[in-house]
Every structure is written in structure tokens, then in C-alpha cells.
Amino acid sequence: MGDDGQLAALLDEQAAFYRAVAPEYDDHALPFAGGGEPAQALDAFRPAGSVLELACGPGTWTPQLLRHATDVTAVDASAEMLGIASSRVGAAPVRFLQGDLFTWHPDRRYDVVFFGFWLSHVPAERSTSFWSLVDDCLQPDGRVFFVDDWHRTEEELIEGEDSPVVQRRLTDGTAYRIVKIPHQPADLERQLARIGWSINVHSISGPYYWGSGTRTQPA
Ligand SMILES: C[S@@+](CC[C@H](N)C(=O)[O-])C[C@H]1O[C@@H](n2cnc3c(N)ncnc32)[C@H](O)[C@@H]1O
Fold first, then answer.
1. pLDDT in tens, 106-133
2. SS percent in the chain: helix, strand, coil, step 5
3. Is 14 in the pocket of ligand 1 (CB under 6 A)?
4. Cα–chain-centroid distance for residue 111?
5. Ligand 1 contacts CB of residue 116 (under 6 A)
6. Which CATH number fits domain 4-152+184-215: 3.30.365.10, 3.40.50.150, 3.30.470.20, 3.20.20.240?
């Protein structure tokens, strides 16, 4: 994808889309985005201890994390999303932080790092640095859980099937370009293994998948 300036502009546009879509986010979400099989898998994973939620959005997953966690730190670039998330969790032990995940650094380490419907928005050029951030966020025995989907409609493929860039629209028709990588679970698992992660990625019904694991343990 072009030079770094073009990529930075695309990531700014992606963040702007999510700021603008925040009040109508639930109208655009896929069915099961915050429930069903991924939610059962997350409960079975038991995200206990101190949990970091990256790209928390409007708090789609935060209440479920709180069923297991002693405390949650939730980061998102959008103040609009954080405001909605905050109103959903009430007085629960959640620390909300506004931050750009392509430059943000943690101030402590966590038992679990969780991200819902975020990985598919990380461009290939930033994948290694994103996983290096996850590494920096985790305790030595820390665990990761993510859930995502590979769904892209014909209409949004404005640069063709081979491009990671798609177009999303607000309800009023305003168009934004965002990154949406249609990861396939087996390929993703292999890619993560190559950069030092032992993560099982599970396909579930529909376009959804979830993954959980740890850094690859030394032999
Ligand atoms: C698809 S939503 C997922 C929200 C939520 N986790 C869920 O599962 O519904 C992607 C989220 O990423 C956030 N985001 C976009 N760019 C970001 C960036 N550079 N740094 C941090 N968050 C970002 C958006 O504000 C949005 O809340």
C-alpha cells in the first residue's frame, strides 16, 4: 500500500469513520458481533485478573470482560466511543484511556489482552508492530483473546478484492475508507506463529473467528 504518508492518512480516515459512526454503531454491527459463539468462547477462556481491552468501541465486550476480570483498562482512539462505553459500564472498575493504538504505549502490564473486531483493521504494514505492542502489554504468562470477522460486501470493495481498503458509509451516506483485512483463520494462525505467538484461531459459523493463546514458550 503506497508510502507511509498515504497509510497514515488512511488510518486517520479510519479513526475519523469510527468517531463519526459512534452514535449509530449498533445499527451497522453484524448479528452476533457481541454475542453468540464468540461470547461463549470468551466465557470459556475466562479473562480473569487485570484485563486490557484494545479498541473497545462502545463497550460491546467490556461488560462481558467484567464478569471475569478484577479490573479492565479500555483504550480507543475515539472519545465518542469511550463516552458510550463509559455509560454502559456504570461504576464498574474500568479505566478508559483515549489513545491511538499505532503510537500508544502501556503504562503497566496485564494478565489478559483482548480485542474485538480490531485485528482486521490493522494493515499488514503495522501488524508486527501491533503484536509487539501486545507483547509489551502482557505479563510474562499473559494471555490473548481476539474475535473478528472476514466479511466484506461487494459494494464496499472500491479498490477490488485484493486491496485491504474498503469503503464504509454513515447512515447519511458520507463515505470513508477504512482497512478491512479478510483474514482466514489457518493463515492467520501461521502468520502469528512466524512472529512468535502460539495462538489457535477457530472458525465459527458465519464470517466469524476467534483466537486465543500466548507468546510461544521457549522449548
Ligand atoms: C470495529 S470497531 C470495534 C469496537 C468494539 N471492540 C467491538 O467489538 O464492537 C473498531 C474500533 O477501533 C477504534 N479505532 C480505530 N482506529 C483506532 C486507532 N488508531 N487507535 C485506537 N482505536 C482505534 C474505533 O474507534 C472503534 O471503536
1. 999 999 999 999 999 999 999 999 999 9
2. 35, 30, 35
3. yes
4. 17
5. yes
6. 3.40.50.150
**Is ligand 1 within 6 A of the CB of residue 188?**
no
Give tens-digit pLDDT for 195-219: 999 999 999 988 999 999 999 987 6
Q: Where are the domains of the chain?
A: 4-152+184-215
State which ligand 1 atom lies nearest to the alpha carbon of 101: 20
Crossing angle, helix 79-89 and helix 4-21, to 10 degrees? 40
CA 154-156-158 angle, 5° bins: 95
Read off the pTM.
0.96
25 CA closest ligand 1 atom index: 9
Task: Judge if the beta carbon of residue 85 lies within 6 A of ligand 1.
Answer: no
